[in-house]
């Protein structure tokens, strides 16, 4: 079997560890040192579903504005673009600048170069800062940050899933807007927090790769009027 080749590495801000980008033939993997694989270019079914099912829930007409927290390998962004019209706007917040560069470089072809789409703008920084400073701005917020409510790479991500973070997301959404949260596994206490904030919550289980792979969880939480 062809061995993995290390292409690059980058530090996650806030003592989040070291990310490493590997390639083996046409396959790519992003791993965090000491904690294993975070994502693989062969398995992105749940990332696609995050965007596809969010777009299916939009009620905002022809000019939706979306915020995606976490670029990853670009699959969620690419899936969203496939289901949005020409007048949509999609902002992507990515904490690790190197991940943006990887998507402009060797990773770009995996998802079809979504960063080159004119509907896309990129913010290199913490999505939490955006949420904390916006009001009635987005029709959908998609969070694929860390491992979900049970953080893996960075304790600072915990704020996103706290009552304060969820209240900020609620405020940043427009009426009837959707907060979509990807998670590696279930978290009943997180559902309760969403409901306490005022969201109507729908939990969906999806496969990591088509009909195969691990089962991941996506919560779709709709803001009221």
What does this structure look like?
With 225 residues, the protein is α/β, with parallel strands linked by helices. It has helices at residues 45-57, 75-82, 97-104, 127-131, 163-172, 188-197, and strands at 5-11, 18-24, 27-32, 36-40, 65-69, 89-94, 120-124, 138-143, 173-183, 200-209, 212-222. Helix 1 (45-57) runs parallel beside helix 2 and helix 5 packs across helix 6. It is globular. The relative contact order is 0.15. The model has no long low-confidence stretch (mean pLDDT 90).
Secondary-structure blueprint:
Layout (H helix, E strand, L loop, with lengths): L4 E7 L6 E7 L2 E6 L3 E5 L4 H13 L7 E5 L5 H8 L6 E6 L2 H8 L15 E5 L2 H5 L6 E6 L19 H10 E11 L4 H10 L2 E10 L2 E11 L3
Parallel strand pairs: 5-6, 5-8, 6-7, 8-9
Antiparallel strand pairs: 1-2, 2-3, 3-4, 9-11, 10-11
Please sum up the structure shown:
Helix content is 24%, strand content 35%. The chain is of the alpha/beta class.
Q: Write down the secondary-structure element order.
A: EEEEHEHEHEHEHEHEE
The dominant shape is: globular
Average per-residue pLDDT, rounded, comes to 90
Classify the helix fraction into a percent range. 10-25%
Task: Report the total helices.
Answer: 6
Quaternary structure state of the chains depicted: single chain
Low-confidence stretches: none
The rounded distance between the terminal residues' Cα atoms is 55 Å
Give the spatial strand order of the biggest sheet: 7-6-5-8-9-11-10
Q: Mind summarizing the main beta sheet? A: 7 strands, mixed
Radius of gyration (CA) equals 16 Å
How many strands in all? Answer: 11
Derived structural class = alpha/beta
Q: Strand portion, in percent? A: 35-45%
